[in-house]
Specification:
This protein has 196 residues and is mainly β. Helix content is 7%, strand content 38%. It has three domains: 1-52, no CATH class; 69-136, Roll (SH3 type barrels), CATH 2.30.30.140; 145-195, SH3 type barrels. The strands form four sheets. The protein has a five-stranded antiparallel beta sheet with strand order 8-7-4-3-9, with no helix packed on it. The protein has a five-stranded antiparallel beta sheet with strand order 13-12-11-10-14, with no helix packed on it. It contains one helix and 14 strands.
């Protein structure tokens, strides 16, 4: 994989760029002295990361995809990760509304679209209508470090580790959590767990 670093140097439009154009002669916008010659080194325009192995990168993406749970039904209080403003980075948050939801605008009463969810992010930002395609739920596995709400959905989050799961008729119901202070809970639902 090659990472390119682009040069954002500009050439003045007043300069004649004919057949004798010298790429080492660069004039910056706002440069008071157009006769000043800049030393241009082409190696500075590119950065090669020799340490990146494409197989390692593909393995990483496969590992991440294996942790995404697309079957979980999203509900109010579900811990999720979402692309804030349809960006490129997933941020942790919690669902606070399941749409369609009615809201009032200057034009009158409107509805947030179906199959969208209101998310309040852990950093305090929120979005009222994030499409399901931009939301992911991370699977919880045994041995994983997590934070859980002790004693119910209104409790504070405390660090712990998943030590088991409760399955009935092939359906995963809850998880066994051992907290860092040594206490344990035997039936913690997924909505009370967030991945660290």
């Amino acid at each position: 994989m090659v990472t390119l670093k682009f040069s954002y140097k500009t050439v003045s439009p007043n300069e004649d760029n004919g057949d004798d154009f010298d790429p080492d002669y660069v004039i910056y916008d706002g440069d008071d002295n157009p006769d000043s010659k800049q030393n241009h080194n082409e190696e500075d325009d590119y950065y090669y990361d020799e340490d990146v192995n494409e197989n390692d990168e593909q393995d990483h993406f496969k590992e991440v995809d294996a942790l995404v749970d697309n079957d979980t039904k999203l509900a109010i209080g579900s811990p999720v990760q979402a692309l804030f403003e349809r960006g490129e980075v997933f941020y942790a948050g919690t669902i606070f509304q399941v749409n369609p939801t009615e809201y009032i605008s200057p034009e009158g009463i409107k509805w947030y679209p179906k199959n969208t969810f209101g998310i309040i992010y852990d950093d305090g930002d929120f979005e009222p209508a994030v499409h399901r395609d931009y939301i992911r739920v991370v699977k919880v596995k045994e041995g994983m470090s997590v934070e859980c709400q002790i004693g119910g959905v209104d409790g504070a989050f405390f660090p712990g580790q998943v030590v088991g799961s409760n399955v009935r008729d092939g359906k995963l119901l809850s998880y066994k959590i051992k907290y860092e202070d040594g206490t344990e809970e035997k039936a913690v639902t997924r909505r009370r767990i967030r991945v660290r």
